[in-house]
Amino acid sequence: MSEDPPTWPVTSYCVISVITLPIYILVLVCLLRLRLTSKNYNTTFYTLLLQHCIADLLSMAMFITLNLGRFVYFIRQFYFNYQEYYIAAAAYNHIYFTLYIRCTGIILLSFQRYFAIVHTSTTVAKKIQKASKLKIMAVYWILPVLISLVVLKNTDFYYGSIEKMETIADHSVIQRNTLMSLIVVGSTCILCIVAYGGLLLFIRKNSKYLPTSSRREISLAAQIFVLLLSFFGILVFDCFQNYFSQTHNTERIFYMRRIYPLLNGILSYINPYCILFLNRDLSKEIIRMVFCKKAKQDSKIKKVLKNKVALRSINHTIRIAKTTAGTARYR
């Protein structure tokens, strides 16, 4: 007898989305605003973090549109009627595509923290810190797109029925994609463990001699480490999915798919809470923005503004002096 898939993960996901999505958008808007006024938020770390925020929101937007949209009758009817126009394929493929983007992001963030703290004065660390925003964004997005080409080229998907709207695919495709996901997520966890293992050893050896600036960098590393923990939940999920696909247990595959929304929600929505509770500087600026207070400006920007004001004042004084001198001559 077949077991009905659970509905509580989707319900939990919807509740989490209603609470967290506005908070995440607020964090993103605040970060974008700070990047316009403060040099501290234009570093490689914050550029990568911004891309990761965008990737999370993209994942949520695609999941809500393609998966939760099927619960609305007229959207479900539209998807079913036009499923051959990559709609059914997108409902399946976007899960892996958005996952690989986040995997790339967490690796880049972890190793950026490692080089920024452990190998601060090396050539590699300096190049990473001085990398242009365009290069950082290109690396962040192009790498996962290249990895995802194997998944995105699959188009042979269809919905089983308009009532259930379950995405049906060839079993060989499911086997390949679940195995690939397991390899990508597993490799992500291993690489990040290596980075944080080296970072932990460095902190233990030099804890007494770390300056204040390094301690701030370490707090940012803690923020990314907590974010990394959610990937281990995805790794466990992929282990089960790969096992069920290899043993041709189709019923369990569909059962596990219903659990994925909750895991995907945790993977995406944990980031704003990591920022609010573990990134003191950014969380303070978010509170300032909420209460309509002006963001603090960098000391360099303040000096530039003061110099501009002083220069304008000098120019104005010179103009007045010239005008006065000219008037005196005519007299």
Automatic annotation (TrEMBL):
Protein location: Membrane
Family matches, as SUPFAM superfamilies: Family A G protein-coupled receptor-like (SSF81321)
Superkingdom per UniProt: Eukaryota
Domain annotation G-protein coupled receptors family 1 profile: ranges: 23-275
GO cellular component: membrane
Statement: the UniProt record of this protein carries the keyword Glycoprotein: no
Record-linked PANTHER family: CARDIOACCELERATORY PEPTIDE RECEPTOR-RELATED (PTHR24224), G-PROTEIN COUPLED RECEPTORS FAMILY 1 PROFILE DOMAIN-CONTAINING PROTEIN (PTHR24224:SF18)
Name of this chain's protein: G-protein coupled receptors family 1 profile domain-containing protein
Source organism of the structure: Caenorhabditis remanei
